[in-house]
Amino acid sequence: MNVAMFGFLHESNTFLKAKTQYEDFRRVSLTRGSSMLERWSGARHELGGMIAGCAESALKIVGGMAGLALPSGTITAEAYERIATELIETLQEALPLDGLLVALHGATVSEHYPDADGELLRRIRQIVGPTLPMVVTLDLHANISPAMAKLSTALIVYRTNPHLDQFERGREAALLLRSILAGEVNPVQALCAPPLVLPISCQYTAEDPARQLYADLEKVLTWPGILSASVAMGFYFADVEEMGASFVAVADGDLALADRASRWMATRAWERRGCFDPRLPDAASAVKMAIHSRNQPVVLMDIGDNVGGGSPADSTILFQEILSQGGRNAMVILCDPDAVQNCVAAGVSNTVTLEVGGKSDNLHGEPVAVRGRIRSLSDGIFVERQVRHGGWGGGNQGITAVLETGEKHTVVLTSTRMAPMSLEQVISLGIHPEEKDILVVKGVVAPRPAYEPIAGELILVDTPGVTSNNPARFKFQHRRKPLYPLESDTPFSTLV
Ligand SMILES: [Zn+2]
Asked: Per the confidence metrics, is the pTM higher than 0.85?
C-alpha cells in the first residue's frame, strides 16, 4: 500500500505584530521526499511515529513534505501560498495513493485563512477526492474547526501537555490508516466544540483540572466501537472563530456513537468549567515568594513571555522585579541579538555595561541595565537526548553570551528565540542551573520535564505579555461569542 506523509506545523499567535515568513520554516525544517524521511526517522515526534508505524504495517511512504517553524505570528499570505503550493505539487507527484498521513498543528493562521489547517485539508481533498483515507494528527493546542473534522477521515490529538506522546500519536495514526486500508474498520468522527476557553496554567495534564479531561477520554476509549478519542485544549492566542476547547471521537461506522462520545466528554468538561481558574500570583508577589523560599532553586514560570506560545523571549518583567527586590543568584535567559553583538565586540572575560531585553515591543517590560563580566561566548548549539516537549532533540539559539553580575545573577543572552524545553540549553554553556536560587523560565507547562527534576519549588506567574494566562486580557475580534469564562452567563452549545 502506498501512502504519502505531510507535515505543516505552526502555532500562530495572532497578537504578535511580526508575521511568520517562508524563511522561518526553512530555517527550522522544510524537507521533502527522502530528506524528509531522513530528518524525521527516529524522532520523538508524530512524524517519527508515522514513519515507524508505516514500517511495521508494510505501508510504503512514497512521497511527502514536512515544514515546521517556531511558534510565532500569523503566517504571511505569500509564505502560506508558497508552502501550500509546494505541498500540493509534492502530493500530485506521489499519486496514485492508497492513503494519507498528515501532521498539522491545528492552531495555524495565515493572513488570508484564519483556519489555515482546514484550508490545507480542503486543497488536499481537491486533489485526492472526498473518500481517500486521510488520518490527521494535531497538537493538543489545536483550535479544531468543523471543516477540519469534515475533511479528515480521523483526527488524533496529542494527549499530554507537556507534549511527550507525539511519537505514539503518529504511530497510532499510521496503524489506524493500515486498519482502514485493510478493510478492518470504517472510521466516522464527531466533533463537539463547546464555548469553553481553558487558561493555559490549567492545561497541565498530570494534574487536575486537566487530568480529569483525559480520565474521561480514557473511559471513552473503552466503549465498544470507539477507535480513537481526543481532547484539544485550544489556543486562545489565535483570535479565530474556532478558538477554544474541543472534543473528538472516532467510531467504527457508527456516527451516533461518535457523536455521543464527543458530547459526553464535552459535557463533563463543561460541568467542571469553574475549576479552570486563571488566578495566579503577579510578578511582585511571586518574586517575593521566591526570595523567601527555602526550596531553591525556585522556578518562576514567566507565562506572559511563553516562547513556546510565540512570545519574543525578551521580557524583563521578572528580572526587573528580582533586581528591585534585591534578589540574588538568579538565572535569566533573554533573546537580545544587539546585546550579544556588544559582548562579542567586548570579548570574553571583559566587563560590560549593557541594556538587555525589553526591546521587541512595549508589552514585555523595559530594557534593564546590567553590568557584568562576560563569562563565555558560544555558538549556542546544544543537543538533548531525553524525551522533551515537542520532540525537541536540541536547538540552536544563535551566538550566545553569558554574563555574570556582581549580584551573582547569570544573564544568558541569545541571538534567536529559544523555548526552554531542555536544560542542555544552559548546561551546554557551562551553567549549573541547580546551583542558582531563582530560575526565570519563559513557559508554562512545556518546560516542566526539563526543570522539574532540579526545581525546589515551581511558581506559575501571571506576567503580562502576548501569551498572558488570563484570556480576559486579550482584545479579540474574531472569536465566537459568548465563550466561557469571557462571558460568564454563556450557555452550552457547540460550534458547527
Ligand atoms: Zn502544544
From this structure: yes
Q: Are residues 243 and 312 in the same domain?
A: no
Together in a domain, 70 and 215:
yes
CA of 88 to the centre of ligand 1 (A): 26
The answer to whether residue 161 sits within a structural domain is yes
**Residue 410 cell numbers, joined:** 547569570
67: closest CA among 54, 52, 82? 82
**Cβ density class 437-475: b for 16+ within 10 Å, e for less:** bbbbbbbbbbbbbbbeeebeebbbbbbbbbbbbbbeebe
The answer to whether residues 171 and 300 belong to one domain is: no
Which residue ranges of the chain lie beneath pLDDT 50?
A: none
**Cα 157 to averaged position of ligand 1 atoms, centre (Å):** 10
Q: Quick one: 416 and 463 in the same domain?
A: yes
What are the residues facing 232 on neighbouring strands?
Answer: 246
Q: 207 C-alpha to center of ligand 1: Å?
A: 17
Q: What residue numbers bound the domain in which 154 lies?
A: 2-275
User: For 252-271, what is each residue's pLDDT tens digit?
Assistant: 999 999 999 999 999 999 99
Cα(17) to centroid of ligand 1, in Å?
21
Number of domains in the chain: 2
Count how many residues are written for the chain. Answer: 496
Report the pLDDT value the prediction gives residue 470, as an integer from 0 to 100: 92
